[in-house]
Amino acid sequence: MSVIQSTGYPIYFQNPGYKALGDYLRNNRFSKIIILVDANTKRDCLPLFKQKFGLEFAYETIVLPPGEEFKNITTCVEIWEELSRINADRKSLVINLGGGVITDMGGFIASCFKRGIEFVNIPTTLLSMVDASVGGKTGIDLGTLKNQIGLFSNPAMVIIDYDYLLTVPKRELKSGLAEIIKYGYTFDKTLWETIHRFEDIDLNEVNELIYKSIDIKNEVVKTDMKETGLRKTLNFGHTIGHAVESYFLDSKEKENLTHGEAIAVGMVIEAYFSYKLNGFPLVKVDELKSFVKNFYGKVEMSKNDITSIIPLMMYDKKNVSGQVNFVLLKEMENCIWDINVHEDLLLEGFAYYAD
């Protein structure tokens, strides 16, 4: 597959990425190389990376505990202290090998340390391949509020290697598929037409969708890097989805949802808003709801849950002057953004999902 050129950095696919990384290390002579992983990717992905890369080089490994709950400033401080302990300097390089938590937080850590050191993203989950590793966003959560602290900072390169997906649990693969569904509804309906046939995850088919999804996101980002207009469409399903994800993450009585499971709920409800406000075809809303419930399972939310979820939307990054803004559909592949939804319709949307 050909290289995708993003805003100041290349996105490589499969083995050419490792060759490019080898050339990059030889040409830059970094004083220290740090590979940032979590416990899972250290076990499952680091050996594969070393086998695929094939180049002998000295490096330090920093291992994080896995999970969204560790994507916070406390973890960052611990990593900065570790970088200082091992004498990392401004000529050091961080290689982020992992899912969205690792690439988001690793990019943030590298971009702040010594006012910024170079980093490379090697995403190992479907979600991080099609979303978190591309676009220059880095960041961490504030408590349970998603991605509240961060900055735009580009990696030196991104390497996409589908073989890492063989290490990913099925639930996490399904989570990543939700972001591809988003691209299908907002930019390329052929993606949705392919996914709509899925009864289960088929990596052979998914691999064909990854390149197209990255290409879509990259073209959007090149047009609107700082999310002032078009890039907002990439948040379809996320205003509600992030609030649902945060609520379940904070609840002691409920099992955490994956990012994709929460975003799938958000897409169904926001597609319903699109039907009510923009005349988006109800048949496409029903189609999405049916698939989401069959594929991900129904997320049970009581009236009390919903009452607690709605205020969390106030922390969405797209909001302006205290107004919750949504990305809604007019038709397949046609979105509008900065749309306010009345609370009565919010409740109606949750009721539609629950029905």
From TrEMBL:
Q: What is its EC number?
A: 4.2.3.4
At the top of the EC hierarchy, this enzyme's class is: lyase
Q: Which GO terms describe its molecular function?
A: 3-dehydroquinate synthase activity
Question: What positions does the domain 3-dehydroquinate synthase C-terminal occupy?
Answer: 176-319
Task: Tell me the Gene3D superfamilies matching this sequence.
Answer: 3.40.50.1970, Dehydroquinate synthase-like - alpha domain
Q: Which UniProt keywords apply?
A: Cobalt, Lyase, Metal-binding, NAD, Nucleotide-binding, Zinc
Q: Which Pfam families match?
A: DHQ_synthase, DHQS_C
Q: Which cofactor does it need?
A: NAD(+); Co(2+)
- Its recorded name reads 3-dehydroquinate synthase
User: Which species is this record about?
Assistant: Namhaeicola litoreus
